Task: structure prediction
Amino acid sequence: MHFIADFHIHSRYSRATSPQMDLENIAKWAEIKGIKVIATGDYTHPEWFKNLKEKLEPAEPGLYRLRHQFSGPEQIRFILTTEVSCIYSKGGRVRKIHILIFSPSLEIVEKINARLSLIGNLKADGRPILGLDAKELAKIVLNTSENCLVLGAHLMTPWFSLFGSRSGFDSLEECFEEHSRYIYAGETGLSADPAMLWRIPDGRRISLISNSDAHSPQKIGREANVFDTELNYFSIIEAVKRKDPKKFLYTIEFYPEEGKYHYDGHRLCHISLSPHETKKYNGICPRCGRPLTIGVLNRVEQLADRPVGFHPKGAIPFKSLIPLAEIISEVFGVGPETIQVEKEYKKLIKRFGSEFNVLLKAKREDLERITLPELAEGIIRAREGQVIREPGYDGVYGRIRVFSEEERKNFSGEQGVLF
Result:
């Protein structure tokens, strides 16, 4: 069965997360996006776990769906995942590692939660902070069930990731030691893509998955994974572990420059630098004199043993896309959350069935029948990689555009009449 999956989101019990992130809204937006299998997220939180037990029922092995008495699209499947923040000292440094955990049943989750509740306060946040070595977390989870999957979340993010420049490690083995052989996958994160990680030894060894890390319903599916397997937990996990290109078809990625930590820089000083420029300044901000936040691209350069453009044999391919609302926003010249964008977005979804159908499959001539030719052109350009990139840095999102300023001037007048 061909389907799209997003394995990393957060519930309304996580900090800085929309109160709309309940199961019904998650299912609704998964359907709008074109996602079949969506993460529950945050299963360690007692209230959210209670919600999961109350509102979900078993579907295929290891997957769940909303119970009939609760509203929501019945065809959407939920997979049990959570993110844990491990903060601890190792090798003379403070480590801050975010770990993503997959589990095959609510019964296994309950056992994991019971163990972790003895270590830290699971009620404080949907993504709990535990003073626990990532190696020990992996040991607890995998001893509970060998069918669980443990992996590094957003592998390259500076502050909270396995390879992060601020608090991470240089290799999986350095982090997980003897348990590194049980780490089969890692998450690219918004500021990196597989092509960047293929340059790193561990980025070639493990499977690379991509997920939205959504904190609001509209962000679901901004990164995702495409499979052709049986619809059940065990087939999905096996396809990931084996890096089987016949079953794990490709990942859907942000253009990595749009991520918040692609370039180096200082947000407060409005300084954004490429790795080459950072080297020129010896890693020091030219305005305030403090150390720069080293971004993902620079960190990849530090760890890489292969050149830019290296493509390992048998690697799972990927496609880079721009969220549909952002393309509409650029063409209309208004914010992505405005009424005009929402109206056009709904019109396209109604016609083509889902956002991924629009972004990946809709033909130009079909798009032009119901929307502006400029918008049809923008969607095709994003699909083909014909974009203009302004890299993000130090917590500031980058910007990916499909039209130059000159092109926008040429058609803005006509749109002023239309809209």
Summary: The CA atoms of residues 54 and 360 lie 36 Å apart.
